[in-house]
Amino acid sequence: MANNEFEEAWLDEGINTYSTGKVLARAFGPGRLSLAINQIPLAWFFKLPKYYDWELDRATSIHIASIDPIVRASWEFLNRLSYGLNVYQRASACLYTLERLLGEGKMLRGLREFQKRFRFRHPRSEDFFQVMSEVAGQDLDWFYRTFFLSAQTFDYGIASLRSRVKPAKLMGLFDEAGVRKEIGRKDIRKSRENLASQKEIREKGKEHAIDKGEEIKEEERLENIRAEKAPPSAEKTLKSKIYLNEIVVRRYGEVRVSPDFPLKIKIVFDDGSEEIRTWDGQERWARFLLEKESRVKLAMVDPENIWIIDSNWSNNSRTLESQNQGVWRLAASFFFILQNFLLTLSGLI
C-alpha cells in the first residue's frame, strides 16, 4: 500500500508508529528510560520508570496540538518539529484513543480491512476513516474532522468539589400539594422551638413516671439501656446527616466529545461507594448535585483513560481534602536518586 507522504504523511508515519508500538508492547512489555552516564546505563543502579510507547507519544505531542493539524502538506507545517510530532506521535496518540473508543477488536478489523481494500493503491485520509466507520458501525467523520483536520486542544477536568450538611429545612418558595408555600427564617426558628418543646415534654414525662414510682423491672431497664447502645434503627438512620455534594466539571479546551461517546465522571464517597455519571460535554461546564449520607471524597473525569489526547491529565481528578502523600513519596524518591547520583559521580572523578 502506498500513500502521498508529501501531503498526508500520517498515513505512513502515524499508522506505523501506532502499529509498531502495539507489536513492541505485545512482544516485550513496557520499556525503560535509557539514561546513561559515560555510556554506563543508570538502570544498572536505579529502578527507572517503565513506560509504553503510547505514553511517550502522548507526552511528546500534547503541547503541539494547537499549532498545526495532523493532515497538512509537509511544506505547510510551522517547522520540522511540528511536522514530526504531528505526523508521528500525535497521529499515533489519536489512533490509540480511537482504539479505546471502539475496542481493540474493531480497531484491528478496521486496519485489516483498510489494508485489504486499498492494497496496491494510494488511499487518502478520508478513505481510512470511511473504512473505520463501516467496520465500527458508526460515523467517525467527527473524529477525523476534530482531531486530524483541526489544531485545537482537548481538555476536560474537575473544576471544584464541595460538600456540606443539608439543613433540616430550606428557605425559599416551595410547591406543597399544588399550593405555593414560602419558608423563611421565622418558620425555621419556630420549627426548632417546636422540636425543643417536644423533647422537653418527653423528658418531663420520663421524670414524672419515675417520681410516681411505677413498677419497672430491672430487666426491662437493662433492656432499654441495651437498646440505646444498639446500632441505629432504620428510623434513626433517616434522621442522620444528609450531605449536599457538588461536583463541577469544565471543558477547558476547544474540542467537544461526540454525543455518541459521552464523557464519564467517576464519583467516590467517604463510605467507599461509587457512582458513574455521564456528560455530553457540549457546554463549557456542568454541575452535578448529589444528596447522600456520605461526603464526596474524589471525582474523576475519564476514569478509564480513554481520551489519551487530553492535554492536561493533572486536572482530571480532584479530592475534597488535599493529599500530600504522593508529593512526599516523589520528593523522597528524587532525593534518593540525587544522593546516589552524586555518590556515583564522586567516585568517577
Account of the protein in words:
There is one protein chain. This protein has 349 residues and is of the alpha+beta class. It folds into 3 domains: 138 residues, Neutral Protease, domain 2; 90 residues, Immunoglobulin-like (Sandwich), CATH 2.60.40; 70 residues, no CATH class. It has 10 helices and 13 strands. The strands form 5 sheets. The protein has a 4-stranded antiparallel β-sheet with strand order 10-9-12-13, with no helix packed on it. Strands 5-8-11 form a 3-stranded antiparallel β-sheet, with no helix packed on it. A hairpin with a 2-residue loop joins strand 2 and strand 3. Helix 1 packs across helix 3, helix 3 packs across helix 4 and helix 4 packs across helix 5. About 2% of the residues have low confidence.
The N- to C-terminal Cα distance equals: 55 Å
> Class of the largest domain in CATH?
Mainly Alpha
Major sheet attributes = 4 strands, antiparallel
Strand order of the largest sheet: 10-9-12-13
Question: What's this, in brief?
Answer:
The protein has about 350 residues and is α+β, with helices and mostly antiparallel strands. It has ten helices and 13 strands. A four-stranded antiparallel sheet has the order 10-9-12-13, with no helix packed on it.
Tell me the layout of helices and strands:
Elements: H1 10-28, E1 31-32, E2 36-37, E3 40-41, E4 50-51, H2 53-61, H3 80-102, H4 104-117, H5 125-136, H6 141-147, E5 156-165, E6 172-176, E7 179-183, H7 185-211, H8 218-229, H9 234-238, E8 243-251, E9 263-269, E10 274-279, E11 285-292, E12 296-301, E13 317-319, H10 325-348
Antiparallel strand pairs: 1-4, 2-3, 5-8, 6-7, 8-11, 9-10, 9-12, 12-13
Helix pairs in contact: 1-3, 2-3, 3-4, 4-5
